[in-house]
Amino acid sequence: MAKRVSVDGWLFTVTLILVFVGLVMVFSASAIMAKEKFGSGYYFLWKQLGWAVAGMAAMVAGMKIDYKYYKESAVVFSVLGGTTLLLILALLLDRSHNTHRWIHVGGFSLQPAELAKPALILFLAFFLEGRTKEMKDWRRTLLPAIVPTMVFLVLIVLQPDLGTAIACAAITVCIMYVAGLDMRYIGYAFVGSLLPLYFLIFHVAFRKARILAFLNPYSDPQGSGFHIIQSLIAVSTGGITGLGLMEGKQKLFYLPEPHTDFIFSVTAEELGLIGALLVVALFGTFLWRGIRTALKTQDLFGRFLVVGITSMVVVQAFINISVVLGMMPTKGIPLPFVSYGGSSLFITLACVGVLLNVSKQAD
């Protein structure tokens, strides 16, 4: 059968729409705050637009570069080693916002944890391609696959950023499951993670407060429950059609970080249930086309890349929207393509370029 010569139009279009929605909502969510802090309501919009343009260029480049180029061991281990060094470097640098998540160079900021996700995807796709029939072999397959993941998880948790660590773990599980890992091994891994998660959550004050706030936010409405309550107020106020673009009230110094972690709250308040469901439908379409591409791709390396990139986008979207709706404890996970954040937007768009290249070559 002849290979397709064009990329997946659905994936490409959905990505463009999500980026456009993100630019509009970043401006709406941040304009007043930006005017107050920086003297210009366009401060965050211009920065996000710059990253969007750079990310689009990276996406187009990724569409044109044969994804099989990334199968070279020199490329894989250079990316893996470089990302590890950046994660370590972030821990050694001074704190920013009480965390070690960013590397600042002049006016440029990089969040190494964002690189960890595609680095893991690339390594696992490379390593598991020839081992799908040996997924029960602990010595030759499971342990070598898990070690880099565990190193990244530990380094990310130390930042501290448990939410991104959980996202990385979920991406790893998705790839390994598609590679043929038996569900019982996934169950063993889940049970084994319960004790570390217990200590990471209930023996760390701010995480314990988030869990308690998630269970009953009104027990401390001005403290740990404030974020969830304000988010739910924003979502419920929007109704069916919303208050109108730029007309939201919760972003006026009520919602914490309305242009980043809680941008979906602003979307629901201003565009209503219709706008919120449209965003969810766009991510649903992204998932559908990603699964379709994975099923049509005969090359296992390409299939694992597709599964990893698709799960990276969809898992983060699921976590972010669940937090906004009070279905999960608060985590610092951005909404892909939509939330303000240069590292996340650029890297995600670059990864989508690789996904589109695989779709172009799928049988």
Characteristics:
363 residues, mainly alpha, two-stranded antiparallel sheet, globular
List the helices and strands and how they pair.
Blueprint: H1 9-38, H2 43-64, H3 73-92, E1 103-105, E2 108-110, H4 112-128, H5 138-157, H6 162-178, H7 183-202, H8 205-215, H9 226-238, H10 263-296, H11 300-324, H12 342-361
Helix pairs in contact: 1-2, 1-10, 2-12, 3-4, 3-5, 4-5, 4-6, 4-11, 4-12, 5-6, 6-11, 9-10, 10-11, 11-12
How would you portray this structure in words?
The chain has helices at 9-38, 43-64, 73-92, 112-128, 138-157, 162-178, 183-202, 205-215, 226-238, 263-296, 300-324, 342-361; strands at residues 103-105, 108-110. By secondary structure, the protein is an all-alpha fold. Strands 1-2 form a two-stranded antiparallel sheet. A hairpin with a 2-residue loop joins β1 (103-105) and β2 (108-110). The chain starts with 8 loop residues before the first helix and ends with a helix. The model has no long low-confidence stretch (mean pLDDT 88).
